[in-house]
Amino acid sequence: MENGTVLIVGSGGREHAISLQLAKSASVSNIHIAPGNAGTSMQGSNHDVAVDDMDGLCELAVRIGADLVIIGPEAPLVAGLADRLRHLGISCFGPNADGALLEGSKEHAKSIMNRLGVPTAGSVMIVESSQIDSALDGFSKPWVIKRDGLAAGKGVTVTEDIDEAVDAAKRAIDTDGKVLIEEFLQGEEASILVLMDESGFSILPSSQDHKRLNDGDRGPNTGGMGAYSPAPVATKIVMDRVISRIVEPMHRFLSSRSVPYRGCLYVGLMIENDDPRVVEFNVRFGDPETQVTLPLVQSDLGLLLMAVSEGKLSDFKLEISDKHAATIVLASEGYPEKPIKGRVVRGIYTEEKGVETIIHHAGTKSHGDLVISSGGRVLSVTGISDTLEEAIKGAYSRISKVNLEGGHYRRDIGHKALET
Ligand code: AMP
Ligand code: GLY
Description:
By secondary structure, this protein is of the alpha+beta class. The chain has 4 domains: 93 residues, Rossmann fold (3-Layer(aba) Sandwich); 59 residues, ATP-grasp fold, A domain (Dna Ligase, domain 1, 2-Layer Sandwich); 130 residues, ATP-grasp fold, B domain (D-amino Acid Aminotransferase, Chain A, domain 1); 96 residues, Alpha-Beta Complex (Glycinamide Ribonucleotide Synthetase, Chain A, domain 4), CATH 3.90.600. The protein has a 5-stranded parallel sheet with strand order 3-2-1-4-5, sandwiched between helices. It has a 5-stranded antiparallel sheet with strand order 12-15-18-23-20. Strand 13 and strand 14 form a beta hairpin. Helix 5 packs across helix 6. It is globular and about 60 Å long.
């Protein structure tokens, strides 16, 4: 690709991280984002087309003459946007609906893992409320109850309270006609983003998300309150096992499909005593993991993602920096239950001296010269440095200068890694 035109689908921090990195890619001349945020509008043209508007997105891709479409979130992938774009002859980063079912159905993901012998939590799928008690009896507490389909990050209940477990299982059966009950995995989590096509796979630097709202991993689950990369828990021995026990079998399976998987396979791991097990697969880049992973990629991102979308990844030489990155998410008052939107965000452009920092916009909109909050996760501040400690320090110093009424962020991002 030369002087390429790229369309990014999505509006979060992940999509802003992609657009910032494409802006640095010599192969890319025009960046379009649908719908984008106040940050992405600084690298390209935002288009007011929603991520679930399949017709609108296809029309847009054709109209702008997109050489490549990068699909950020899971919902359009599960709904078959990549299938439609490929049908139109447009190169696309992201799997077809068939591949996206790995995230779209936990039952499907479990059955593939069990068939391939990929290590994961033991589980049982039930369809009748009368089966709930005996299914829960088969596991010890805490109980893990999972809805089958996409649930915008709210599909998993982990609880020590048997009544809450029964209730979650009942509600899932009422809504979806089935529920997955799963063994609780002990250990530390890590996220591994794997670029994959039928020619091969490349593993991006490991990272760790912070899913709970409050310091010390307390409070409700969120979309992710911060992340850092690389994650020390993903040691060489762990990564060798991840490759041989998880990535290679998944790659063999996914590249043998009639339409091979071309995109990012997000492997969510639980690691205990150097033993990795899969908690979940996602079929896209993670958010906020992307904000700490992509800044470490030194290769031209446009060429890299184009290679994946054309099935030529094995020809690509991926270059990764040996720096560290940490990102801190600034969330709106009331997030995650009822985020208050529409407030002015100030102090975004005060750059940090000494440490490289990036503002990754998420739920933001431009209003004249002002930036206004428009979502639960408003932005994240990423620090990049030779050491994780410096990266974290830089990110915290810069976020302290951002001003949003009622805005809050965790104060302990990356602390676990610093203690090891
Ligand atoms: P998921 O949507 O499957 O990623 O689950 C959301 C979060 O719930 C994960 O990031 C874990 O923190 C937790 N979780 C999910 N499944 C398990 C499990 N089997 N054991 C322990 N924690 C889990
Ligand atoms: N950070 C978790 C996710 O992207 O699903």
